[in-house]
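Dear colleagues,

As part of the handover before I leave the project, I'm documenting each prediction I ran so the next person doesn't have to rerun anything. This entry is a single chain, and its sequence is reproduced below.
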Amino acid sequence: MHLTTSSDLPDAATAAEQTPADASLYEPLGGTYGISGAVDVLVDRLYDNASANANPHVAAFHSQQGQAGFKFLVTAWSIEQTGGPKCYPGRDMRESHAHLSVSQRDFDIVAHEIAATLYHVGVPDREHKEFMAIIESYRSMVVGPAQG
């Protein structure tokens, strides 16, 4: 029996070199393993981010000890959004963020952490820009109606 180790998995840069430009973003990001590895780093960064936790609703969510489940949901959402298999069992973005009173600044803080994580794990520029465009496309669904 062979256990898969991180050295067995393609990194994002290698996967991007092997993928045609018109393919989905899922494979260039390393598929399920690459995406889940990036999300693991990202969620830890978000839970530790003092600026993100300045929003009391976000801080309360982070204190509920649901970090593993949140990692799963973000991973599944990211897999689907990048063209991978349908596997996200969560609510839509409006519904899942409605109670958090997310402001434009709050969204920017999270987007910054996402971008920094993509750089940290070595996502190439083209894929970085494509993923960040996906994130930006959800701004109006995540930011609360009366939030600045």
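The chain has one domain: 23-142. The CA atoms of residues 80 and 86 lie 5 Å apart.

All the best with the project,
I.
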